[in-house]
Each structure stands twice: as C-alpha cells, then as structure tokens.
C-alpha cells in the first residue's frame, strides 16, 4: 500500500484548499477511505470517512466545510476544504482499505489499527 498526499500549504482563515491522495496497491472502487489530520501536539483524528458504497461521515468540527471525493479511474482521493479555521492546521493523511477498517476507525475517531497506512502527509497551515 502506498499513499502520496499533496496540495497542502499556507492559507488565511476563511481560505480554501483541495488535497489530493494518489493511492497504489489497492483499488479505490469499493474500498473504504479516510482523511485524517494530526494537529501540533495532538493525536491523529479522522476528518472525513468514506464507506465502500459511497456514504461519507464528517465529524462535527468539519461538517459543511470539508468534502471527500474520489476518482476511481485515477485511483485518487480528494479533500476539498473551505472556510478554513486556524484549528484546521495540521498534517493531513489519507488511507484506504477494502476491508472497512479505515471507515470504522475513522468514524470512531481512532487510528490504533492504521499504523501500516500512513504516507508522508501534507502540511496545512491556516494563519493570517
């Protein structure tokens, strides 16, 4: 499995970014997927969790601002982030799995079973 995240950067509060994640080693179609972030000094948390049949769960802090999507032909995940807040600052990671582990962990707010999934991440900094 390999996940290559990109698209991070420095944006002012209220700004937007779209992150990309190129996935290799599995087929995204039908797999559960997730975007996670790790804020400075905090643990990794799920911010967008996609089931294999296309449903998406967003935790309250990002609901209405973040949108997860996937391009199965390109085997690529995206995370569109709008109205960014300083609290969104962190390193963002993606993960995918055909056995539903990613969705279950992401939706439960844990990452204990995902140690083998992490790429290098992409830094998002929201600051004026």
How would you describe this structure to a colleague?
With 128 residues, this protein is mainly beta. It is 6% helix and 45% strand. It is built from 1 helix and 10 strands, in the order βββββββββαβ. It has a 6-stranded mixed beta sheet, with helices on one face. The protein has a 4-stranded antiparallel beta sheet with strand order 1-3-8-7, with no helix packed on it.
Layout: helices, strands, pairs:
Layout: E1 2-6, E2 9-11, E3 17-24, E4 32-38, E5 44-50, E6 56-57, E7 66-71, E8 76-81, E9 90-97, H1 101-108, E10 122-126
Parallel strand pairs: 2-10
Antiparallel strand pairs: 1-3, 3-8, 4-5, 4-9, 5-6, 7-8, 9-10
Oligomer: single chain
User: pLDDT under 50 segments (min length 5)?
Assistant: none
* Overall pLDDT metric: 95
* Share of residues in helices: under 10%
Strand/helix succession: EEEEEEEEEHE
List keywords for this structure.
6-stranded mixed beta sheet, 1 helix, 128 residues, 10 strands, 45% strand, mainly beta, 4-stranded antiparallel beta sheet
Question: Brief description of this entry?
Answer:
With 128 residues, the protein is mainly beta. The chain is built from one helix and ten strands. It has one helix at residues 101-108, and strands spanning 2-6, 9-11, 17-24, 32-38, 44-50, 56-57, 66-71, 76-81, 90-97, 122-126.
